[in-house]
Amino acid sequence: MERRKVEPYDIQTELASLKYWGFDGTQIHKTYTFDTYKSGLVFAVAVGHLADRMDHHPDLFIGYQKVTVKLNTHDLNGISTWDFKLARQIESLV
Length: 94
What we know:
Elements: H1 8-15, E1 22-23, E2 28-33, H2 37-54, E3 59-63, E4 66-71, H3 81-91
Antiparallel strand pairs: 1-2, 2-4, 3-4
C-alpha cells in the first residue's frame, strides 16, 4: 500500500469503517477497555509488534484497564493511509 496523506475531507469517510475511532484534528485515536490491567498490557505489546513490522509507530497510553492508541504520520504532517492501515490491523486484535 502506498503511503500518502489523507485529505481532511476524507478522514471522516475512512473513520466510518472503524468503530469508535475519532479524530482530534491532528491524530486518529481510540481508547480500548479491558477486564484487567494485564490484558491491556498484552494488547499494547501486540500493537507494538504490529507497528514495528510496519515501521509506523503510534502513541500508546496505558492506564488501568484502558489503552489509548493515537496515530498520525509525522513526516507527512498529517493523517496517512498507513494510519488507517495500522488502525485496521489493531482492530483485528480485539
